[in-house]
Amino acid sequence: MTLNEKDYNRLIAAIKQLRMSAVGNSNIKSLAENLKDAQIIPSEKTPGDLITMNSKVLLKRMDNNQDVEVSVVYHDDADIKSKKVSVFAPMGMAILGKREQQVINCHLPNGNISYMVSKLLYQPEAAGDLNL
After folding, report:
1. Which residues pair with 17 in a beta bridge?
2. How far is 24 from 15, CA to CA, in rounded Å?
3. Regarding beta strands 56-61 and 67-73, do their DSSP bridges make them parallel or antiparallel, or are they unpaired?
4. Alpha carbon distances (Å) from 113 to 51, 72, 84
C-alpha cells in the first residue's frame, strides 16, 4: 500500500479516535495493520494514478464484468447511497493505495469478490483539492 503523508497522518488520527469509541472493531485493527507496512510518500509527490482518500474510482467486478463506481472516504463521510465507501470497510481498505489496472480482493462477509481498478475518475491531489 502506498499513501501520501497527509492521508497517512489523518488515518492514524482517525484510528486513534475510533479506538476510543469502538472496542474491538476488527476493521480498525485491519487498517492499522495495513498502515504499518505502508510506503509513505510526500503529499506533493502523489502520483496521478494513486487512489488516495476522497478519490472516486471505477471498478470492474471480475466475475461478471459489472462496473461499480465508488469514492473512498473517511468513516464519518460514508454513505452507501451516494457510493461513498468508508476506508474502514473491506472495499475501502482494499482500494486505498492502489493504482489503475490493479486487481483488488474484497473480503466480504458473504465471500471474496475481485475487482479491477478500471479508472481513477477523480483524485483530490491531481485536481488541486488539497484540503479535503
Report:
1. none
2. 12
3. antiparallel
4. 19, 17, 18
Residue pLDDT, tens place only, 83-119: 999 998 999 999 999 999 999 999 877 889 999 999 9
Please check whether residue 43 is in contact with residue 5, taking contact to mean a CB–CB distance below 8 angstroms: yes
Any idea where the domains of the chain sit in the sequence? 2-127
Give the separation between CA 108 and CA 39, rounded to whole angstroms.
Answer: 25
Are 112 and 104 within 8 A, CB to CB?
no
Environment class of residue 100 by beta-carbon count within 10 Å: exposed (0-12), middle (13-18) or buried (19+)?
middle
Phi then psi for 44, rounded to 5 degrees?
-70, -10
Could you tell me the pTM of the whole model? 0.86
- 3 state DSSP class of 131: coil
Q: What is the pLDDT of residue 20?
A: 67
Q: Residue 33 corresponds to which cell in the numbers above?
A: 495493520
**Residue among 60, 46, 37, 33 nearest 7 (CA):** 46
Please state which architecture CATH assigns to domain 2-127: Roll (3.10)
Q: Rounded distance, CA 111 to CA 109, Å?
A: 6
| Contacts of residue 92, Cβ cutoff 8 Å, sequence gap at least 6 | 72, 73, 78, 85, 86
